[in-house]
Predict the 3D structure of the following.
Amino acid sequence: MVAFHFPPQAGSSGVQRTLRFVQHLPALGWQPLVLTANTLAYDQTNSHLLADVPAGTVVRRALALDTARHLQVAGRYWAAMARPDRWMSWRWDAVRQGLAMVRAFKPDAIWSTYPIATAHVIGAELARQTRLPWVADFRDPMAQEGYPSDPRTWQAFERIEATAARQARWCVFTTPSAACLYQQRYPQAAQRMMVLENGYDEESFLQAGALDAPRLLATDLPAVRNRPALLLHSGIVYPSERDPAALFVALGQLAQSGAVGPEDLMIRFRAAVHEDLLRDLAMRHNVQALVEICPALPYREALAEMLNADTLLLMQASNCNAQIPAKFYEYLRAGKPLLGLTDPAGDTAAAMRSAGLPNTARLDNAPEIAQALQQLLRELRLGQAARPGLSAIQQASRTARAQTLAQMLNEASSEKSP
């Protein structure tokens, strides 16, 4: 399993996808071998998830340098050393170590995962040299309109995805729209484009204090009275893909009109990263009393916070309609009402509707957001806000996702690569 994001890397939801597959695949007949990057490559590290790596798991950490941090001179670096991404140097030692792992352990398949594009470069090269079947886990689209903005990087992304469409046994995406996009882009490989959504880890939720899902949903939602409702956004607030500007406009209008005050609502942003942006918006719209900006927590503490919030906030811009934030699946398991600021035509809104969660507004539409906030607060005060359905929660477990991946690996290993 070729994955850049693996413990102790911190700050990316991609850690959870790979880590939970590593946990669950052995029970399904597949023993993972992990090929990742040395810790020097990571901007942030946190050791708390290392304990979740099953004992005895083979993990090899290949040398990788971050071009922007390690290969710059006076703040500048050669652009070619950052294509397809800043960790392109990972390729050389990873291929060397990967070939050694193939010789030593004789695996039956290769799996590589984006969003670090170099992982697919490594996966493709290992598959080419070993003739092992390759599963390319794209998760989200790579080359998109206007992204990457650098033309040469965009071309590098296009070459990588074309190689995967030609060479991989399966190309895997986390949403139906992403898979459909690539089926149209590479029609000759359409039958090999598959959907494998993200999910949540049940054991982590139980350790964080959650009831199992049936008991959780059988418990009445308490009415929020005589205190402000806590609306939690847990995770990164991207300035473009999760632009909170219209949310703050709506908050400012509601506060100015007296419709919502600190006695009614507190929005907590946890581990937002772009904290200065949030502070500036709160000051500009005079809603500091309605907003908390809080640092990151260890993973299970962050889950416990979701379980204790009154309602949860999800943001996704229309330029990400083919993507669903990985956080959505953890929100599902928390069993709380959810406010989704997203395009109704996108996959995120569709996933919410499928789960029985109707409270949505467009991320860039302040009047819609204001209306949705007021409606949600009314429902919370009455204890009548919608919660996710049990079947939606159960289908989104990492255990169920690992079963799907195991089926793909079974088919891939029983056939020759295309």
In short: The mean pLDDT is 96. The chain has 16 helices and twelve strands.
